Input
Amino acid sequence: MAEVPVSRGFKSKRQTSEQGRLPPGQYRTTDFPILSAGPTPDIRVADWKLALQLGGSLVRAWTWDEFEALPQTTLNTDIHCVTKWTKLDTTWQGVSFDDLLKSAGLEKPPQAFVMAHCDGGYTTSVPVEDLIAGKAMIATRFDGVPLAPAHGGPARLLVPHLYFWKSAKWLRRIRFMPEAEPGFREARGYHIHGDPWREQRYDGD
Ligand SMILES: Nc1nc2c(c(=O)[nH]1)N[C@H]1C(S)=C(S)[C@@H](COP(=O)(O)O)O[C@H]1N2
Ligand SMILES: [Mo]
Output
C-alpha cells in the first residue's frame, strides 16, 4: 500500500476514516455510479450458468442453484474506478474465488492468469494471484440485497484492490490462461494490471 503522510493535527471523524484509504488521484463519492460499455443484459437466473475453463475444455459449470449452494462470503471493502471515484465501505456477498476453485475440484490454480468473459462480450484479464486468498469473489449481493442488473446482477466478479474495470459485470465464464492477455479495456489503452495504489491507469503507467 502507498505511504500516506500522517498528519498529527486535529482530524474530523470523516477525515480520520478516509485517512490512507484514497489511492493517489482518487476522490470520494457516496453514490454508486454505473459504468457499462454496452446495454444492461436481461438475465434470468433459470438460464444462467457460470463456466470455468482450462485449455479450451470445461472444468466445471454451475447452474444458479448450484452456485447459490456454495459457501457464502461477505466482503466489506473500498472500490476504486479509473475515472477517479472511490466508494468506501461497500458490502458484498457471494462466493470467494477460493471456494469456487475448491468446488471445481482444483486444489491449486492450474495457470497464472484468467480471462473473465461476460454477457455482452466484455472481457478483462486478472492474475490469479489477485484472486486467491480471499482477495476476490463472484458477488451476487450488494448491501444484503440481490445485485441490481445495472451493477452486474445476477453475478459479477469483484476484485476490489484493483481498479473497478477488473470487476467484470454479468460474469459467465472464467478461462484460465498461461499468460496475461488484454481484455476489452486493456486492449483500448488501460493498464494490464490496474493497481490503484500504484496508479496503473493506462498502458505505460
Ligand atoms: N461486463 C462489463 N463489466 C464491467 C464494465 C463493462 O462495461 N461491462 N465496466 C467496468 C468498469 S470500467 C467499471 S468502473 C465497473 C463499474 O461497475 P458499476 O457500474 O457497478 O459501478 O464495472 C466494470 N465491469
Ligand atoms: Mo471504470
